[in-house]
Amino acid sequence: MNKIKSQVSYNLKKDKKSYISFGIVVLITAIMLNLALVLVFQVDNAYDKKLEKMNTASINVCIPKSQNTNVLMSDIEALEDVSEVECREAVFLEAVVNDFRGTDFSMNTMFYNMDEFRDINKLEIKEESVQMTEQSIYLPLYVASFGEFGLEDEIVYEVLDKKHTFIVSGVLEEMQYGNYGKGLMGAYLPENVYNEFAREYEENVVIEYSIIAGDGTDIKDLYNEIVKLLDEQGITMLTSCDKESTKDTRTMVCNLLILVLLVFALVILLVSVFLCKFRISISIEEDMINMGVLKALGYTGNMIIGSMVLPYIMITVVAALFGVIASYGILPILSEVLTLQAGFSFDLLFDIKALICVEIILVLIVVVFTYTGAKRIKKLQPINAIRGNGEVKKFKIFVNAKQNVLLFSVSFVLTILVAFASTLFYNVIVKPNNFISTLSEEMPDIILYPDEKYKDYIINDLQNFSSIQNVLEYTVGVVNIDDEPITVFACEDFSKVSNDLCYLGENPKEKNQIALGSSFEGKYKLGDQIEIYNGDTSFSYEITGFVQSVNYQGKVCEFSVDGYEELSTETVAPSLYLYLVDSSDAESVIKKLEANYGDKIKSQVNYQKMTETTKEMYSGLASIIVVVIFVLTILIVLFVLYIVVKTLLVQQKQELGIYKAIGYSNWQLIFKMVGGFIPSSVLAVLISSVLGLLYVPEINQFIFQTVGAMKNNMEVSFVFLMIFALIQIVVNFIISISLTMPIKKISAYALIKED
After folding, report:
1. Which burial class, exposed, middle or buried, applies to 352 when counting CB atoms under 10 A from its CB (0-12, 13-18, 19+)?
2. Residues 525, 544 contacting (CB under 8 angstroms)
3. pLDDT tens, 603-654?
4. What angle do CA 549, 552, 558 make, to 5 degrees?
5. Rounded CA gap, 581 and 427, in Å?
6. Most-buried pick from 204, 537, 542, 665 (CB within 10 A)?
7. What string of DSSP letters covers 269-338?
8. Alpha-carbon distance 486 to 655, whole Å?
């Protein structure tokens, strides 16, 4: 044991800087790996615990109050798979929230009486004002946080041509409509405020049935039973949601983040352990004679192997521990971002399981690779090693080739990360519409809601506005497809939209055509006929294409305006999408519209402002990712080049001394050494950057398909790939020069003489 201990100590002192570099890389890997594992172990569990704590319904269905019957509750309770049912009244409206993070935001909203007793879908108040007012409202955490509404702030809901001003008296959490991924938000009014509001919108009053399924029940099967029951009684289902799909929506960003963290951690870890293997291989060649002496003195092969592997294991254990600890400084920031998106709060606590997993994973991988690199020591014959035969000759012949292959391979892999970062930077910072349009639906500059009787007049008159480039009739509604409420996008001409959602086939042009969302692709195919029902009205459509929608999980469809009107003219509320010559003029154009049309328009939305706000949010996140990737790349390159340069300094020690003695300057020797290995790195960077035109689109497609974007609008800019490649080459060159600077401090005599 003492023999191994002394050798471990010797190795640690000899390669101190190399081990420090390795430790830094392991620390970074541990940070990313622990972040991902904590999210895996805790977020899903926190969500499920909150579902249970608030007794969240398995399924919620909403029907018109006018169609509710005295026996419907008992009929639902009589279903075999139903454990518990509760119903409550609400007002279901499409409302525009004014000044939502600096703009107007149109959202379907369910206004509830918050004082009504709840045993299912309970509410948890997070913040509350001391004083209540006659116009108090309680907002979900998502609306309050993302919309930037604080306690006692005013919030204005605009419904048709009426504005309702409320005072924010509280912020609450609920697990039903907690973020807008399901296309519906909740709003909670004290009983007296609700009653007045409900009287004003009596036609929009609905009854919501919240249903808890029995243990082991398939929620989809139960949902189909409920749909069948409502259909048999001629009752229209206005909206529905289930806790499984809602959970998928609310944890989507978290799952995507976990994927990215795990991939990055894996890449960094593999590069670092391959370097360990290479460094051990070089160390064996450098210390061949010493190892022969050790074997001659009685050291076994396993002892020598252990003395080489143990330092890496020790550093891995310590660096991983510090990495895990450091990750908890980042977790609160992640928690805040995820809380904003998911609409429910949770605390990420210290996780012993994550720590154990990080340590085991990192140590196991490091042991495998380091042992693989060191195991040939067993076959080393002491006499041959001492004489410098066999392995030493092989080392002198092939060491430069090994180093160049290593540099080429590492540089090639790292350039994949850099190419991804450059494409992300280009599409989020330089051309942000590419990124936003991939995750969004149609993106006009202004949405105008005209009075029905003035619609044609306004459309014709808008043609005279020099600031308006295009006007489209575009409507968002709801129909039932396969007994499920599906969001409708109806447009007069989809060839004129700014964001074509169709990824397969074509958009509908005629009134008997339809394009279905991606969630239907496995059930239907192009050319099929589908019968769509809306109340007592039905119409047959030909499926011409499939479209994507991240926000609605592919549960959408497209009609022409005429095609949508075939189902029910009463449901088609007119709206106009305006596209400006200069998007930055949106605010001034809105003021002009208000001045020109007055009460001829019900409301308008500055959608461009909303888009800009979204761009700012994502640009900050993308900038962080790009910076992190570059920092990681630099650290790994530093680690690789340190090992290569140190090896070359030992290998070429006498050669450099001779050159220095005959008059070569320090800088000539530095550039001579750098010129021996940097070309392989430059070549790898350039080749990988050019190939980025092929592999980056595939990477983007894989990432975006995980969140439901079947096609993406991300462009791969060859210019940006080359710019980022040039930056990487310059950084590699600067690091190489810096690492070879010790040549200046060594005398010619010291370089020439044998140690």
Report:
1. exposed
2. no
3. 777 888 777 767 776 676 677 777 877 777 787 787 778 777 877 776 677 7
4. 60
5. 22
6. 204
7. HHHHHHHHHHHHHHHHHHTHHHHHHHHHTT--HHHHHHHHHHHHHHHHHHHHHHHHHHHHHHHHHHHHHH
8. 76
Among 428, 414, 408, smallest CA distance to 717 is for 428
Q: Are 339 and 145 in contact (CB under 8 A)?
A: yes
CA distance 451 to 301: 88
**Contacts made by residues 612-621, CB under 8 angstroms, sequence distance 24+:** 613/101, 613/102, 613/103, 614/436, 614/440, 615/428, 615/432, 615/436, 618/428, 618/432, 618/435, 618/436, 619/428, 619/429, 619/432, 621/337
8 Å CB contact between 227 and 595: no
Nearest to 318 by CA among 1, 20, 7, 39: 20
Q: Amino acid identity of 642?
A: Y
Specify the residue for token string 């960094």: 268
CB neighbours of 557 closer than 8 A, spacing ≥ 6? 479, 481, 486, 487, 488, 489, 514, 515, 516, 517, 547
The Cα 208–Cα 76 span in angstroms is: 12
CA dihedral 430, 343, 240, 530 (to 10 degrees): 20
Q: Please report, for residues 117, 405, 514, 708, the alpha-carbon distance to residue 524 in angstroms, rounded to integers and kept in the order given.
A: 43, 51, 12, 18
- The model's pTM is 0.71
